[in-house]
């Protein structure tokens, strides 16, 4: 046990023990064996195996580089394996589902560089006694399951609040325990080994981003190529044309996927596609929402690149490595003098680049405020209804009280559907791709909810009349002992609709 605790902390030992028990139980139960039989063929399919090989090859190169840079050693093997299992594998699943443009990767980097990452690292550095950790894991799972069930219905909301309180108390105890250890034993965390453990996940994430980006690109291209039609030879030409058009630009490939009616669906031959791609390129160039911030982004990235070049140049110039080690020319140079000149030049470039970076960040902010004001003016009615609906959202919609449902949701949904239709038709080129996609999803969810309700013109109904209609439809709907299909569909559609309202609030930065 001492040898085990010298490698793993108590929480990791407890978690590993419970995972092993769960696997053993799963293997010896019929449900577990059936699950493995259904999952294993998918996990080890040909496409996934190829991807595993590519990933493991690239990942091995990154670890090898860190080893030669004298950053990585065997003491970090455990942290590396944990990062792959608990960070990278879920990240791949998230990438396949959500990676559509650079915003996904920018958010990913921002989340991993946030101060909360440092706080979580410190909170997880010290653990409780092994017996406490072994008991804490099943208790936490039990409370988590109860919390998930209690969050579904209004009658169990008090249970949810009680568990919320327990989580808060436990969190406070963990913080007190960590602060006590930090004060009593600061040397355990303030050392090079701990710094490496903290930096390792960040370095691995940055160094493996090309593989993650490649996965997102491959997945998106696959969704585009599956829609290609025509003769086999013509399909190959069409695919090559599509790749030449979009290349490795994920945003452009996603635009192709979202606009199949403009390109692939209209093309049976490569010649037709070439003409459609020219028109599609003109369409993309005319999109104000996507192109308005291009110049500020280019300026800022250029400044950041110049700052990196200048910093690297200054470090190289002031280092003890001779220039002869870096070049192959067979002549003598005054290295000291050259380093002095290069240092002056790069120092000046660094100062200029920093000044321009500050200026262009302000320039980008001003441009963003300009386009935001234009959008708020153009989409005023839609954003107003979204904001109003967000105020009316409830954790548990009153599907058993149609008059409340009418006041909180139904009377607003038709307005949002009408304004969404108008925004998509009139202001298509004013919005960015992700803004337009959010509005289209909102349009879809409102249309689905209206279809479930079964009323085309809600203005002919007041709350009392709607209640009569709603109750009649509920009565005639298919029903078993516990579930009424009509109210169940209403509840399901409202949940999707509510989530999309919250997402629109976030994307359009609507103040509450």
TrEMBL record:
Coiled coil: none annotated. This is Uncharacterized protein. The chain crosses the membrane at residues 12-29, 49-68, 80-96, 108-128, 134-150, 162-183, 198-218, 298-321, 341-362. Keywords: Membrane, Transmembrane, Transmembrane helix.
